[in-house]
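Good morning,

Attaching, inline, the backbone tokens for the sequence recovery test we're adding to the shared suite. The designed sequence is right after.
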């Protein structure tokens, strides 16, 4: 990536490629949301680029291994959020940032959406009906017994 603006553009496109995502600008920065839940906050200015993500699994590793990462302020760091800072002459590691965006999306996205994504990615389309709940199955057995009687 030649510039931080190009890096930001690349990460923006990457974040928006997830299903049901959109970009807002609530604080003058880009907030990428899935069903109204923020999973990435990013901005590029004259001072540099910053990317904020939620890393529930790899936060500790990210903070130990990367000098550009720090716990996010406002108490969010305690909840697994980190912010990566890059100065005007830095070259952001896009592969690492993409992996962090992916982890953040999976941490924030609703479970039903993640399940639908998994089904689509695996090419699985279930043609059989979903299993009935135990309560529903018991009700069906009672109904069929009363029809036989």
């Amino acid at each position: 990536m030649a510039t931080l603006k190009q890096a930001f553009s690349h990460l923006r496109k990457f974040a928006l490629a997830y299903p049901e995502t959109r970009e807002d600008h609530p604080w003058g920065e880009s907030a990428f949301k899935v069903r109204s839940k923020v999973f990435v906050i990013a901005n590029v200015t004259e001072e540099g680029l910053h990317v904020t993500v939620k890393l529930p699994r790899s936060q500790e590793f990210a903070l130990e291994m990367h000098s550009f990462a720090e716990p996010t302020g406002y108490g969010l760091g305690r909840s697994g959020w980190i912010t990566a800072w890059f100065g005007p002459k830095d070259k952001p590691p896009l592969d690492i940032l993409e992996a962090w965006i992916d982890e953040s999306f999976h941490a924030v996205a609703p479970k039903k959406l993640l399940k639908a994504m998994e089904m689509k990615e695996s090419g699985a389309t279930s043609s059989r009906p979903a299993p009935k709940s135990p309560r529903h199955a018991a009700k069906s057995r009672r109904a069929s017994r009363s029809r036989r009687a």
